[in-house]
Amino acid sequence: MAEAGVSKGILKGVIKFTAILGAGFILLAVFKKMLPLPTEDGYRFFPLIGSRDWIWIVAQLHLNFAAFVLGVPLFAVTMEYIGWKKKDERLDRIAYDFTKLFTLAYTVTAVMGSVFLVSLPLLYPKFVEYMMKILGPTWWLYLVVMYGEVFVCYYYFYSWRKMKDRKGFHIAQGVLLNLLGATLLLITSAWVGFMTTPAGVNADGELLSRWGAIHTHMWIPLFLHRFIANIVFGAGIAAAYAAFRFITAKTDEEKAYYDWMGYTSAIISIGVSLLLPGVGYLLGVEIYSFNEQMGIQLMGGFFAWLWVMQAILIGAILFFINYYLWLSLHKMPGGERYFKYVKFLFIVLLLGYAVWLTPHDVALSLEEARRTGTYHPALGKLGVMAAKNTAVILSYLATFLSFAIFRMSNKEPTVSWAKTGHRARAIIIVVSAAGVLAIGIYSYVVSAAVRVKVLSPIQFGLFFIALIALYVLDNYMYKGARIIGEPRWGKMPERSQYALIAITVTFTWLMGMLGYMRAGARQYWHVYGIMKNTSPDAYLPTHGYASVVVTIVTLVFLALVSLVFWSIMKLEKFAAEKRANS
Amino acid sequence: MKKGVVKLAIIIISLNLIFLYIGLKFLPQSESRPPKVVKIEEGISPDDLIHVGEEIVFGKGQCMVCHPAKAESGMRAPAMSTIGVEMEKEAKERGVKPEEHVFEALVNPSKYIVKGFEDIMSPVNKPPTSLTDGEIIAVAAYLQSQGGKVTIAYPASLPQLKDQIAKAGGK
Question: Hey, how many other C-beta atoms are within 10 angstroms of the C-beta on A373?
Answer without folding.
Answer: 15
